[in-house]
Each structure stands twice: as C-alpha cells, then as structure tokens.
Amino acid sequence: MTKILVVFHSITGNTMELAKAVAEGAREEGVDVVVKRVPETIPEEILEKNPGYRAVKDELKSFEVANPEELEEYDAIIFGSPTRFGVMSSQMKQFIDMTGKLWMGRKLEGKVGAVFTSNEMPHGGKEATLLTMILPLLGHGMIIVGIPPVKELYKAGSYYGATSTGKPREEDLEVARLLGKRVASIAKKLKS
Fold first, then answer.
1. Flavodoxin-like domain location, by residue (predicted)?
2. Is the pTM of this model over 0.85?
3. Average pLDDT of span 108-130
4. Does residue 142 contact residue 109 with C-beta atoms inside 8 Å?
C-alpha cells in the first residue's frame, strides 16, 4: 500500500489544522497516511506564555514526533510549517537539515514531496515560505507536487501548496484536502 507522511510544525494549531486536512484528502485516495510533528525546540516554560499554544498543546502533543531517518519508509512526504519572516520555522528547518544522511544515500530520490504553511497576516510571506521549503526537497531529488490552476485557488492557497492566514477557513481546508488527495494520487501512480 502507498504510504504517506504528513509532518508539520505548529505552535498555535493553525498549521496542525492544515496538516489534518491534508491527511484527510490523502486518505480519500485509499492510502496509508501517518501524521507526525517535528521536535519542538522552544522550552515549555516559554511556550506556556503563548495563549494560542496553551489552547492546543494537548492535541499537538497527541501527535508522535517524527524522526528524519524514517522518511525513507514513505512514498510521499508532505511538509507543513508556519511562516517565520518569510521562511519555514527553525524547527522545520532543523528537521530537514537532519536529513543529510538520507541525501547522501539518495533515499528520498523519486519520492513525492509537497508543502503547506500558515501565518498570521495576509502578506506575511506565505509563498516565499512555500518556495523555500521546496528547495531542500528538490535537493533530495523528490518529485514536487503543487496545486493546478483549479477554481479553489481563487479563494485560498497557492500553486506551490496549501496556505492559511490565521485559523484556517473552510476554503483553506478545502485546498489542503485537495493537495493531500493530489499527492496521494500521484504517489499511487508512481508506485504502480
């Protein structure tokens, strides 16, 4: 069976909500989907000062923490990160930076890759984040999947991946599901 990993970083739960929608869309294709989070590097006592984190911390902690070495077990990997100054979070960057051994062994070459992001302001660099998240996937030789020019993009998302500004709206979640379904469909075709 085709196996897909959705791996995300989230503090306030917005990227987590997109991750769940991406996974939901992928499951529509009848594939095995696992959702995990990257390790958090901010100390708990600092996170506890953020009301957004306090509201979702139990749900965030319900997701297993991913290990970079397990990425080779999947046919497709969909990465999700909040936008931090127009780039992915340092937690996601650190996770991807830990894939050097996989890169040296060409373990992700030919696997499907896709990305999604959220941020708190309409023009906070979401597309820049998506594009910079794609670069290491290209370095691994992954096959990048975006979103074709469908009508849903007129309300949400980007060609480069699913997005949201703040808490995801239904339109954002719809595009996230579309991305998951598209990745799953392509991964299934490549596997067969």
1. 4-184
2. yes
3. 94
4. yes
151 three-class SS: helix
Closest CA to 91 of 145, 143, 20, 43: 43
Is the separation of the CB atoms in 18 and 80 below 8 Å?
yes
Q: Which CATH class is domain 3-191?
A: alpha beta
Q: What are phi and psi of 36, to 5 degrees?
A: -135, 165
Residues written for the chain: 192
Cite the DSSP H helix spans in the chain. Answer: 14-27, 44-47, 51-61, 90-97, 100-104, 126-139, 170-191
Q: Kindly report the CA angle at 173 between 172 and 174, in degrees rounded to 5?
A: 90
Q: Where are the domains of the chain?
A: 3-191
Per-residue pLDDT tens for 54-69?
A: 999 999 999 999 999 9
Token pair belonging to 32: 């095995």
- Band of the pLDDT at 139, cuts 50, 70, 90? very high
Residue 122: pLDDT band by 50, 70, 90 thresholds? confident
> Are the C-beta atoms of residues 103 and 142 closer than 8 Å to each other?
no
Q: Please provide residue 84's backbone torsions phi and psi, each rounded to the nearest 5 degrees.
A: -125, 105
Average pLDDT of the chain, as a whole number: 96
Alpha carbon distance 149, 89 (integer Å)? 27
